[in-house]
Model the fold of this input.
Amino acid sequence: MLSTMQDDQLSLAHLLQYGARLHANAEVATWTGSGTRKSTFAQVGKRSAQLAHALRSLGVTGDQRVGTFMWNNTEHLECYMAIPAMGAVLHTLNIRLFPEQLVYVANHAEDHVVIVDGSLIPLFAKQLPEMRTVKHVVVANGDPASLEAPSGVTVHSYEELLSSQPETFDWPEIDERSAAAMCYTSGTTGDPKGVLYSHRSIWLHSMQICMSNTMRLSDEDRALVIVPMFHAMSWGMPYAGFMVGASMVLPDPVLQPGPIAEILAAEKPTFAGAVPTIWQGLLQHLDANPQDISHLREVVVGGSAAPPAMMHAFEERYNVPVLHAWGMTETSPMGSVARPPAEATGKEAWEYRYTQGRFPATVKARLVDDDGNEVPWDGESVGELEVKGPWIAGSYYGGADPDKFHDGWLRTGDVGKITPDGYLTLTDRAKDVIKSGGEWVSSVDLENAVMAHPAVAEAAVIGVPDQKWDERPLVAVVVREGQQVTAEELREFLTGKVAKWQLPENWTFVDEIPKTSVGKFDKKRLRSAHADGKLDVTHF
Ligand code: ADP
Done:
């Protein structure tokens, strides 16, 4: 028996019109370096219509890919809304990809138009001649004359293109399963792989972001969107914001602790999201330059494990709760969020909050061992996490890397355990696990334990070859400015906090942990620095 319900399509064209009309006055504030330039959802709606007309005039008539090479700003938000709403596909190009990878993804996606921030022209111009399918480049916030176009490519000014266009657009009916946006994985191994989000997946994901068991985004929020819009759809915040009328503060190119602190002081956001390295940097900055940030009702941290010491510091020193979440480009990206069950209090609640979180109803999860057998959710048994759901990728664009999928599940490459009540704790990435004498050592546990030391700014743990045990952990430590600590003291500090056989005997002090394009610890580079003998290692 079929239902009698309407089969109305979940399209971003409707989301755009809805936000622009029913949340017309919600604000979009883009940081200028000393203040903000302001727009509203109503204005974003009108300018999105103008952008859609402009793109039509450049030959975007169907599902052509329109790339963006941009920071977090109003114009990028207009691209986020207009491009999918007109039936084309938004392709957010990661400005920090290696040049050859950038060229690879633009060619692989067959981008027809690329919209570029003026400040990024020098970076983009070098790769443009190799982007074979790009016919038009549109320069936002900058001078198009400063971009020398190769033959066959026309350069336009964003503002000039938009200025003469009508402020309404006849948005098409769109099949909710068609592609709305695409994002390539950062490609730490092999070529980047394309994930294609649908109108439906983005819509459902946005609803979940606003729900009480995850980020609780609402029209009472002013969300500081630090996660780059060129990475994992900025964790879905732009679309979720449009759905509920949450105002947005967009930092443009700012990712440094000092300027972020200035934005916090000037704009008093209620909510923010970023990877742990950003929060860790901000914490150090605030400790040296105290400032009231209690206007933040909550901040979400994900992308890598949130060190518990950092979560405590924000809550206890700055009155800002830190919400830990897990996800990946392939999961839109929200996969799980660490809100404790209502009945948990005190230390028990904290134990829940340290985890990578509980799965929402739409994310199915299972753990699988090396032989492909499912392992129980008993909070102890470890396996590779596999997930399934309406906003989880079922394949990569063009069928790349089919081994990442089986039986309709996505193999995440993350290794961990799940409690009977559905809280995930990741112990590692499959490629980062350390196997010592046949036993797994969790690099994440060790990192968290070391980072709990007050003199430690950052710590990353990798496995290094060992004659007796095959592999042993090596801890790379960055000491906080003005502080001192020795490897002996840190080893002593860990005693009693981690199992004795896990106590690392290899330590190195570095000025900085190498980071990936999105600010996560780059363990691949750390491992090769060690292999090349570039690290000065203290061995016990
Ligand atoms: P990349 O693989 O380039 O880092 P993603 O941003 O898609 O690109 O990264 C997803 C991965 O990040 C996950 O598979 C997981 O390994 C890691 N990750 C994300 N959130 C967390 C978290 N809260 N704790 C630990 N690891 C996390």
The domain at 12-203 is CATH 3.40.50.12780 (Rossmann fold). The pocket of adenosine-5'-diphosphate is lined by residues 185-186, 188, 232, 302-305, 324-329, 356, 412-414, 426, 429, 516, 518, 520 (CB under 6 Å). The first strand starts at residue 27 and ends at 31.
